[in-house]
Amino acid sequence: MNTKNKQVKDYLENVYQIVISRNANEPEFHQAVQLFLHSLAPVLEKYPIYMEKRILEQLVEPERVISFRVPWVDDQGVTQVNRGFRVQFNSAIGPYKGGLRFHPSVNLSIIKFLGFEQIFKNSLTGQPIGGGKGGSDFNPKGKSDNEIMRFCQSFMTELAKHIGPDVDVPAGDIGVGAREIGYMYGQYKKIRGAFEAGVLTGKGVHYGGSLARTEATGYGTIYFVQEMLNSRDLTFEDKTVVVSGSGNVSIYAMEKAIQLGAKVVACSDSNGYVYDPNGINLDTVKQIKEVEYNRISTYVDKHPEAVYKDHCSGIWSIPCDIALPCATQNELDEEAAKTLIANGVKVVAEGANMPSTAEAIDIFLNNGVLYGPAKAVNAGGVAVSALEMAQNSMRLSWDFEEVDGKLHIIMQDIYKSCVEAADEFGYSGNLEVGANIAGFRKVADAMISQGVV
């Protein structure tokens, strides 16, 4: 190791240790930062100005962290109290942009890891949006519609003080769909006394939402995988696909993969997974998840040839050509990665945020698997959110085909950016390094240009 390499390595380790010491008991945030910093050594060696200007020290510190209580009254008239969060991480290239997650696992570490990843994901889209994230430990499951409405109204009563079309534009995430966005927008409108459609994305199409937004993350995932397959003269035709999860991302990734000729044989929820050797019937999954709001285990009631098994992690034991982890963080570990390799997987692409552990990623890269990192693969959702913001600003509404066409081009451009960055810095074929470098440089250069440093 030469002197310059050692200097950069020591610098990166020092930044990481600062993160550890300042953010105790935040393992998800530590993991996200470590995975990101791991990619940047060649950039800092070639462009030491990023070290001189202390860009990384600034990037790992959010510009603003907001934590607040959310009191609401349940159907029994009892006051409940949850925690709300909004982390406004970086606004160098545009207003903060990122989803709201309602799930009992939500804490500051998870929101910070998601917000940190969002900076570079948003940068990769080419759209003028910065990085942020928010949410609450509120669990919508099992709650009545009125309880969810009251919670959303209370949550927005505080959040409204900190957001705006040119300041911070939240969207949905796990536990936050069109219903929750609608309740929050209604409360925001009441507080502001104005119809500021661009303050939230993921809205209903009848009041400023964009067509293709529901499908965007899942479709975008498949468009990115298409580019990965093209690099080896492959297609989706006759490929066997396993998709974890059964929410929006999973459903529409399955839909587009099936349209392109693939056979999707498994999907899951937090309780377990279903395997259908004849191919998953997507209409049944949509009925279960989007209409009945039921568990995926009920799939076998309508398709007795399928098999349901408890423990969702077992889904990775099913042989497949393409694995799409689309559920949640750290769902795919070292053991699962080895099993996928042994069963001949060719592509692993992350529809969820940070679903693969660092050990799993190394296994994929070291075994020649085409690996697509989350910040690139699942950027389609936020890309179409930015297109929704553009439509709101122009008081226009584009048809489905126009939005979908723009999404397809954006995903192709993201793939190209990742490939070019990896090639430039000596990591050809490594899309993880390419995504991190490409996302980083746009934000870092903007920070330097604005004199933020």
From TrEMBL:
Ranges of residues in domain Glutamate/phenylalanine/leucine/valine/L-tryptophan dehydrogenase C-terminal: 210-451
Active-site residues from the entry: K133
UniProt KW keywords: NAD, Nucleotide-binding, Oxidoreductase
A GO term for molecular function: glutamate dehydrogenase (NADP+) activity
Record's keyword annotation contains NAD: yes
Site note Important for catalysis, residues: D173
One BP term from GO: glutamate biosynthetic process
PANTHER family (UniProt xref): NADP-SPECIFIC GLUTAMATE DEHYDROGENASE 1-RELATED (PTHR43571:SF1)
Subunit structure: Homohexamer.
Protein name listed in UniProt: Glutamate dehydrogenase
